[in-house]
Amino acid sequence: MGGNPVNLTGASVQFRMVAFGTLTPLIVNSAAVVTDTLGGGVQYEWQSADTETAGVYDALFKVTFGDGTIETFINSENIRVHIVPTF
Q: In the chain, where are the structural domains located?
């Protein structure tokens, strides 16, 4: 992503994913794990239901800070996720 790291002390993080070009419904809306509080590191553990349907999706991380402020990352564009069918 670049830029300065975001301090995630006291924050909760959600991973959100929708079908490409849409805003709803949320395909995934689950908690992510903060892996580096001061460095802004997060990780999402995929669940089997998250990848059941092949397609192109947009994803982002929604951070709720301890003071209630909400910010989404990536700010300039979404994370593009491609799920391919299994044969």
A: 12-83
Contact 30, 21 (CB under 8 A): no
Give the C-alpha separation, 49 to 19, whole Å. Answer: 14
Tell me: pLDDT of 12 over 60: yes
Within 10 angstroms of residue 50's Cβ, the number of other Cβ atoms is 18
The residue ranges of DSSP E strands in 1-87, in sequence order, are: 12-19, 26-31, 33-36, 41-43, 55-64, 70-73, 79-83
- Radius of gyration in angstroms for the set of CA atoms belonging to the chain, rounded to a whole number: 14
pLDDT in tens, 28-71: 999 999 999 999 999 999 999 999 999 999 999 999 999 999 99
Whether the CB-CB separation of 16 and 26 falls below 8 Å is answered with: yes
The answer to whether 26 and 19 are in contact (CB under 8 A) is: no
